[in-house]
Amino acid sequence: MKSRNCLKLIISMAILLALAAPATASGVFTGVKVSTLGVGMDVGYQFTDWFKIRLNGNYLPLDFSHEIEDIEYDIETKSPTAGLLLDLHPFSGKFRISAGLYYRDFDVDLTATPHKAVDIGDYRFQASEVGKLEGNITFDKWAPYVGLGWGMGGGKHSNFSLDFDIGAMWLSGTKVTYKATGPISDPSLVGHAKYQEYVDAVDNEIKDIEDDVDKWGVYPIVSIGFSYRF
Question: By CB count within 10 A, which of 46, 104, 173, 175 is most buried?
């Protein structure tokens, strides 16, 4: 709810700034880029030499393997993001300060098939007990963004621009699911005591993952691309 109120405030400020500012350099622009959010595109409008608004969309398909605490996981994510960003060019040049709000669908899937005994949440289990490990990490859908950049400005600059941005998107609302598919997940096969160890292990593992992710605090965004103003 707070993020949506923040979005409404950003839109209101953009409209007020656009109405109040003298229109010197103006026009519709579009651009393409690559970034830590994936392959992306901008579409926006330059109201003045020092102010513009843009919509930014990105797509990040990833599929790779990574070892976490001696377990080799296959990690897959298809994470679309869409942001409403305001660019302020305080010197009516290429330097800009950006702020806005992103909608993101960060969804990370983890799978592993251990071939030896593994430690899960401070408990040790045999590979035959575990079977396959499956996990999922998600975050809040809305995230504020701030950053600095270099790109299309006003004045006598060309309508074609090489763009560069560096900033951060806040991470929050981390939610983790984690389970084994083998016999250990069925109390009728391993008994109540052993099953309870599994439940405690999974709870500990989920807490450790959430704590590790929350320590990051932000997701760094670095992008490079080009844009053209019509």
Answer: 46
